[in-house]
Amino acid sequence: MSYNPDSAQTRRMPLKHRLLALVVALMWGLNFLAIDASLQQFPPFLLVALRFTLIAVPTLLLIPRPQVPLRWLIGYGLGFGTLQFLFLYWAMAAGFPPGLASLVLQSSAPFTVLLGATVFRERVSARQLAGLLVATAGLAVVGWQQAAQAAFAPFLLVLAGGLGWAIGNVSNARAAAGAARRPNPLHVAMWMSVVPPVPMALLSLVVEGPEAIAASFAPGPSFWPALAGLAYTVLIGTLAASGAWTWLMSRHPAGTVAPFSMLVPVVGLSSSALLTGEDLGPAELAGAALVIAGVLWGSRVPPVTSRRPAASSEQERERDAAGDGSQAPAGRG
């Protein structure tokens, strides 16, 4: 049976699929702790280069390049892969807590809406605007608390990472919309990983220096936990979780699957509090609730009416691209 996004039946995820979505949220939420463990050994820019090199090499050897416009594929890699993780890893290396990072990175959702509206003249619904304002208020509360704790600069770095993710979102959507036929989203994501290694390796060489790079490979107390964290990030946080998420998105409307990604900061905050002792005050918890509620409300898809004119293949492709891009999974890390 072919997938029909307007079918009422497809809007109800089977229990096994809902459990899989919960497992993906768990894998992505724990990914921030894995990144934190790796940053105890490797400098941040080198770590980004290592992460994507381990994905890029087998991609170049085994995965055919998806037939999408090259400029948007590069834009996806520069935004999602390079800028997002450059700033996220930099902030976490500067001491920004992993749980809070999983939350602040949700700024990618309102940034995506703003970029789509201002750069590509996309229509912003009242629901999206309300969600954007609520999420922004929550981020302002968290930022105010971080400024009071003299940690405002790392907070701004994570916000910059969210903006990078948003640039990747809109580039990904344009790449899919500009393709002759709908590409495999997992292949697009893997080819995106080909973009970051070279610029991040050069940045690491210039900023962190050859001595710091060489020293990071010297065995020590944090060496093996750091390698385990890197392996988790590549194998579980990126390949397994993204593959499962792509599988779910191919079988259900984006608006049905996407809300499960808002469990990522919940897992990130709770696991970091449990395992690292990260502590959030009442104001930060209130800000977290606003961010999660705002993003959830803004990404919620209204019920589909049973009768509407049939869409052309071009309209369907653009709608699917918007679903894969603007409703990208949140907080993967």
Automatic annotation (TrEMBL):
Residues 19-142, 156-297 form the EamA domain. It is found in: Membrane. It comes from the Bacteria. The chain crosses the membrane at residues 44-63, 70-92, 98-117, 129-145, 151-168, 188-207, 227-248. Keywords: Membrane, Transmembrane, Transmembrane helix. Residues 303-333 are annotated as: Disordered. It is a multi-pass membrane protein. The keyword Transmembrane applies. The keyword Nucleotidyltransferase does not apply. SUPFAM superfamilies: Multidrug resistance efflux transporter EmrE. InterPro entries: AA-Vitamin_Transporters, EamA_dom, EmrE-like. PANTHER family: AMINO-ACID METABOLITE EFFLUX PUMP-RELATED, INNER MEMBRANE TRANSPORTER. Belongs to the EamA transporter family. This is EamA family transporter.
